[in-house]
Design a protein that fits this description.
The structure is a single chain. The relative contact order is 0.13. This protein has helices spanning 14-33, 42-49, 57-80, 82-101, 106-134, 137-168, 173-176, 178-192, 206-225, 235-255, 271-300, 306-311, 314-334, 339-355, 364-378, 382-391, 398-435, 446-451, 461-493, 514-523, 534-537. It is globular, with a radius of gyration of 23 Å. Helix 3 runs antiparallel to helix 4 and helix 14 (339-355) packs antiparallel against helix 15 (364-378). It has 21 helices and no strands.
Length: 539
């Protein structure tokens, strides 16, 4: 195999890696935090700017832009080098944050959130790819475990911080707070991160990027609007589905001929990539059942405040933190990784089964313990599957493969929210007439209850009790639906092929190309550990 600049990696010392990695973590924290921090501020934003009908787009515009742009950022990083592109995405994110903070209408805020999401999509993908540039696959597990812990922290800390800023400062500070943190990340990464620069300038597949972004946006809009703003059989949803499929077909046809495809179709010929991507989709889809509907259960059924419901999710974060750290260290020492996603999906399934039994009499402690079990499982899945994908591709396609993995993870979250939101609304409509006096039903709207649980506590006690029972039943059904998704993830990862995790030699090219590594793995059923550079052994 010919060696490119991206195949040559000078080993970095432990201190250099950790310093640069701290900047990556700050950027990842910003990108993931802004997915959740706005949730608790939305009612205040509407009170200040108006535009209640477009409230959901404050979140949706960000997620759509981040998800749809991720594959393009990954490819650009592969073609032109990741450091400069990563710094550019941070700048885009910070400019978007500043504009969001000064937004004068809800429409302006939605537009600026989309711009902010463009930067966030690149930050998330490129940070994970840069980790693959810094450390060998053998060492990568522990570092990606820390990234996974940042995601878990953001999912819990976001709503808490949003509430604190709204209560004590202004909703605009949920965006302004990004500026000092982002500037620190820029300085740290700009001064400490040293990566090879790709000297060969190749053209970007702009047409493929446009077709892919349009197809993703069309399909994601189905999950956002379906069953909520438009009926599933409405002309709008059917049109989006047809248009999305046509765009997807056009994208596939174009990528077969493109010299530098934005998402190489050959990735889908790799069984490791296929299995790991399906596992990422199932894991993230299952996660949203817990992170979205447990706070709703805790606030509506147990009477917890918005802040306390966030704190009660800490066991979920703790479980993820423990197993991401432990699994990453074990993988670095042994070079074996398949066991972790298999065991992780088992624990996730058990946790969801336990969560499906909660009702109005379930204590907060018991609910938190169930979340802990789920978190222990989830922490062993996603970062290991990303590691498996990165280990199976050539170094020159790390960014593209990582972006594709992140795309399936994001799609899993979007589809999960759509499925579980539809199930919740349907079950709530079924249970409310059976739990609340009929003459008071006109005052209850399932969509409002889901978006603003605090409104329930303004109702008469008898109505509150009926709503609490209805919500408990509806949330139980959500978890029942999530169980087979996690179980399917378990079945999928059973087919994950485990190949030796490569370690790099000092000042040398990668040890083997993808085909050579897989051929060696076929001849050696029990892969042997490979010696690491001294700088890696110290970390």
């Amino acid at each position: 195999m010919s060696t490119t600049n991206h195949d040559i990696t000078a080993p970095l010392g432990r201190r250099q890696i950790l310093t640069a990695f701290s900047g990556l973590l700050l950027a990842m924290l910003l990108a993931s935090l802004d997915q959740t921090i706005v949730a608790t501020a939305l009612p205040t934003v509407v009170g200040d700017l108006g535009g209640l009908n477009h409230l959901a787009w404050v979140v949706t515009a960000y997620l759509l832009a981040a998800t749809a742009s991720a594959p393009l950022w990954g490819k650009i990083g592969d073609l032109y080098g990741r450091k400069a592109i990563f710094l550019a995405t941070i700048v885009i994110f910070l400019v978007g944050s500043a504009l969001c903070g000064i937004a004068w209408t809800l429409g302006a805020l939605v537009a600026f959130r989309a711009f902010q999401g463009l930067g966030a999509g690149g930050m998330m993908v490129l940070a994970m790819a840069i980790v693959a540039d810094l450390v060998s696959p053998r060492e990568r597990g522990r570092y990606q475990g820390y990234i996974q812990a940042v995601f878990a922290l953001a999912s819990v800390a976001g709503p808490l911080l949003g509430g604190l800023f709204v209560d004590h400062l202004s909703w605009r500070w949920i965006f302004y707070i990004n500026l000092p943190i982002g500037i620190v990340a820029l300085l740290v990464i700009g001064t400490t991160l040293h990566l090879p620069v790709q000297s060969a300038r190749r053209s970007i597949d702009y047409l493929g990027a446009v077709l892919l972004v349009a197809a993703i946006v069309s399909l994601l809009l189905i999950t956002v609007w379906g069953g909520q703003q438009y009926a599933w059989g409405s002309p709008e949803i059917i049109g989006l589905a047809g248009g999305g499929l046509i765009l997807l077909g056009a994208f596939v046809a174009h990528e077969r001929r493109a010299p530098e495809p934005v998402l190489p179709l050959r990735l889908f010929h790799d069984p490791v990539f296929d299995v790991a991507s399906a596992g990422l989709f199932a894991a993230t889809c299952s996660l949203f059942a817990a992170t979205v509907f447990m706070p709703l259960f805790l606030q509506t059924v147990t009477g917890a405040s918005a802040t306390n419901s966030g704190l009660l999710l800490l066991p979920l974060m703790l479980g993820i933190l423990v197993t991401t750290t432990v699994s990453g260290r074990v993988i670095s020492r042994t070079g074996r990784y398949k066991l972790f996603p298999v065991l992780g999906f088992v624990l996730m399934t058990i946790g969801l089964i336990a969560l499906s039994t909660i009702d109005a009499r379930t204590s907060r402690l018991v609910a938190s313990l169930h979340l802990l079990v789920f978190g222990l499982g989830f922490g062993m899945v996603t970062q290991v599957l990303v590691l498996a994908i990165q280990n199976g591709v050539e170094r020159r396609e790390l960014g593209t493969a990582t972006a594709a993995a992140n795309l399936f993870r994001s799609l899993g979250g979007a589809v999960g929210v759509a499925i579980f939101g539809g199930v919740f609304a349907d079950r709530l409509r079924y249970w409310l007439p059976r739990s609340v006096p009929s003459h008071l039903l006109g005052h209850l709207n399932p969509t409002v209850l889901q978006a603003s649980p605090g409104t329930i506590h303004t109702l008469p006690p008898a109505v509150q009790a009926g709503v609490a029972r209805s919500v408990a039943h509806a949330v139980d059904t959500v978890f029942l639906v999530a169980i087979p998704i996690a179980a399917l993830g378990f079945l999928v990862v059973l087919f994950l092929k485990e190949f030796p995790l490569r370690a790099w030699e000092q000042g040398a090219a990668s040890q083997a190309a993808t085909g050579e590594a897989k051929a060696n793995a076929a001849r050696e059923p029990r892969p042997q550990a490979t010696s690491l550079p001294q700088s890696m052994q110290q970390s």
